[in-house]
Amino acid sequence: MKFSCRLIIIQLFLAIGFTALPGQFQPTAVKKSDNLVTVNGKDFYLHEVHQGHTLYSIAKAYGVTEASITEANSVLRTKSLAIGLVIKVPALPSAREEFLIHIVQEKETLSSLSRQYGIKVDDIRMANPDSRWGLSVGQKVKIPKDKITIRQEATGQTTAPARNEAAEKEKELPVESSGSLPCGSKAIPHKTDVFNLVILLPLNLAENDTISYSDTLETDHFRFFEFLEGAYLAIDSLRQSGLNMNLTVLDTERNPETVRNIISSGKLNDADLIIGPVFRSELELVAPFANSRQIPLVNPLSSIDFASGNPYVFQTRLKPEQQVQKVTEYLGSHYKSNVLVIGRYAERNDPDFLSLFDQLKGTLAKADPSGKARPKLVYFNETSRNFLSTESGGTSLEAYLSGNQPNYVIISSNYEVFTTDLINQLNSKSTHFEISAFSLYPSALGSLDLENLFNVNLEVFSDLEENPFVDYHDPAVQNFCRLYGTNWSIEPSRFSFQGFDLTYYFTSALFYFGRNLTETVPCWSEFFHFKPMQTPLFFISGGNGNGFENQAIPIIRYSKAELNRKRVH
């Protein structure tokens, strides 16, 4: 039974901090946060409220007024500070001016940068842990402004200086290709590095600012706020481990012209990672820009393929036809006994159904060259109530079931009445036959009795849009729900979990592997073992100039032996 997040009363250690009991109050000094974010063009620190913090003490620590903090956090207009609450604190104008960003040109080295800025090589290395493998053309190097002793002519923060012919003739360490990074190296937390993450979402802030607290936001708007709330908690969680990150949140307004303006403004130029946008018309603009600047971009919600031809795109959700391919690969590796693919007789000529059968037949043949696991194609005629195949005429379901080996039944229709009818029939046979069923379409399960699903050991494909699964028995999920409720007084949605999972996963990669993201993808699963709460993630490069696709296909099983639902793949 799904636990309600708000009813969890056991004191838990949270991934992003520990919430103390109110009775244990003791005054605590406020430590200024390093977690700087940009929301709608304004800079804020994300500050987690700890035991003993007051609005006055927080305002004093950051050098701002109490009123400015209240104005930035609508939640403070209706509730008091609570331990574990994450609030936005307005940042003073100088907050982002610690570094000058230098873009590496051909033949530039740490030594030449040291001479150009009058700074020690060790100071550059300290600010840029990635530089231990050498520099690569286009790499962004942070130059600490307080260490610069040679005045620069350029006044901007990002500089690509003219080539120095004399320096180029010197015999220095050449620029190393980013591909030379030893993938087998152990991941090292980049605690002295400062990363720039940009999240692009259609928040429609101008419109939503006019909506009163009691009004209901449109579903499209609200779900992206939920995604962002999950992302905030992910970043704050990693901050506890030493991550230093500047977060910029930009509102695309679901308007291509707004996205064009964002790109031309230069707000994306210094990004180390971009998450979003979410709509096709927006991605069609941002993805080519990210490719031209060699900035990794995560396509977080859309199943439209943007990884083809773009080696910097991470495609979280596969196209429907790719999802079917991955599902058949799973079935082919697990279903090796009496395999039945049952479809509606009325859909016997449906190309999608026939394609599924052909793919499954091919994967089974590879898994079992002997041919013993050859699938049988069966149609159920809902009018005559007979099961038909090319090998036999109208007959009963029992004729196709084996009494001495497991039976695997794959239900390929998304028609709810048909699926319900077939699972109920399989349930009635489950006491005499060993049956395991699989449905490609969880939306077709309707209001089936859970007992029937357990009796047929149903497995179902799970996706963000199709039956997303979260294990509310998992302590990590309970922790997340509790903190989410503390901050926003609601329970997390599927988009909240998606925002947390993706942001935690990719910012972890930045934290442990630095800016060489695309070169180190094979190492991620080896060195950081993050278990997503909702969206399993495992990326593989498409090669030949293509980006990375998520190969993890979530499969949920209704286990008869354990009487619970769990992710099995």
Explain what you see:
By secondary structure, the protein is of the alpha/beta class. It contains 16 helices and 24 strands. It has helices at residues 55-62, 66-72, 110-117, 121-127, 165-169, 205-208, 219-239, 256-265, 280-293, 320-334, 351-367, 416-429, 450-455, 475-488, 494-513, 517-527; strands at residues 13-14, 17-18, 36-39, 42-48, 86-90, 99-103, 140-144, 158-159, 195-201, 245-251, 273-275, 297-299, 313-315, 338-344, 376-381, 386-389, 392-395, 407-411, 435-439, 459-461, 539-541, 548-550, 555-559, 564-567. It is elongated. α9 (280-293) links the parallel β11 (273-275) and β12.
**Proportion in helices:** 25-40%
CATH superfamily of the largest domain: Response regulator
Unreliable residue stretches? 1-27, 154-182, 208-218
CATH architecture of the largest domain: 3-Layer(aba) Sandwich
The Rg value, from CA coordinates, equals 28 Å
- How many domains in all? 3
Reported by name, the CATH topology of the largest domain is Rossmann fold
Q: How many alpha or pi helices?
A: 16
Give the rounded overall mean pLDDT: 78
Question: Can you identify the CATH class of the largest domain?
Answer: Alpha Beta
The largest pleated sheet is described as: 10 strands, mixed
Give the CA-based shape: elongated
Count of β-strands:
24
Please give the order of strands in the largest beta sheet: 5-4-3-10-9-11-12-13-22-21
Instruction: Give me the secondary-structure category.
Output: alpha/beta
